[in-house]
Amino acid sequence: MNKIIAIVGMPGSGKTEVADILAKRGFGFVRLGQLTLDEIKERGLEPTETNERQIRERIRKEHGMAAYAILNFLKIGALLKKGGVVIDGLYSWEEYLAFKKKYGNNFCILAVYASPSTRYQRLEKQKIDKSDKALKRRHFTIEQAKSRDKAEIENLNKGGPIAMADFTIINESTKENLKKEVENIIKNWNALCDHGQID
């Protein structure tokens, strides 16, 4: 079976950059949180932290804390038939457990870490690109970013998947250094995924 690597980290850590690097290397790409952004667009709402949070929390209330994993399994399964898959934005511990139960040792976690101050600066400087229909990169003020951090840690059980990462990249410098770190992970892919399953 082809491998899945899920990228975890806080907003502004560099998850999307890592996912883009892997996608350019031929990995199929699934952004779990696209479900939220698609609903934002469908309802004609602004992609604000408040609107996104309400939709995220409603989806999880209706489908459980593993919702974003379960609702994406069909899409992931189709991509796995063609090759490896990179998942951007696994959040909850329950999503992690759902992936481990379904895919076992074919599922790996890559955490991307950057300090809060670095992340907040990135998010504040990030420009809104009107051609970015998927809303992959968004602008947040420092206060919005802090609010999002708090909600993700307290309401989404986000710390667990980060703690269980098979590999962690510290992303405090340049995009070029980040790319080198990702390339190193690709070289060590099998070793990184050679771990036991949590029941």
Task: Please give the structural blueprint.
Elements: E1 4-8, H1 15-24, E2 28-31, H2 34-43, H3 49-63, H4 67-70, H5 73-80, E3 85-88, H6 93-103, E4 107-113, H7 116-125, H8 142-155, H9 159-163, E5 167-170, H10 175-187, H11 189-192
Parallel strand pairs: 1-3, 1-4, 2-3, 4-5
Helix pairs in contact: 1-10, 2-3
Q: Can you list the strand order of the major beta sheet? A: 2-3-1-4-5
Could you give a short account of the major beta sheet? 5 strands, parallel
**Residue share in helices?**
40-55%
What separation lies between the terminal Cα atoms? 20 Å
Structural description of this entry:
52% of the residues lie in helices and 12% in strands. Residues 195-199 have low confidence and may be disordered. A five-stranded parallel beta sheet has the order 2-3-1-4-5, with helices on both faces. It has one domain: 3-Layer(aba) Sandwich (Rossmann fold). It has 199 residues and is an alpha/beta fold. It has eleven helices and five strands; from the N terminus they run βαβααααβαβαααβαα.
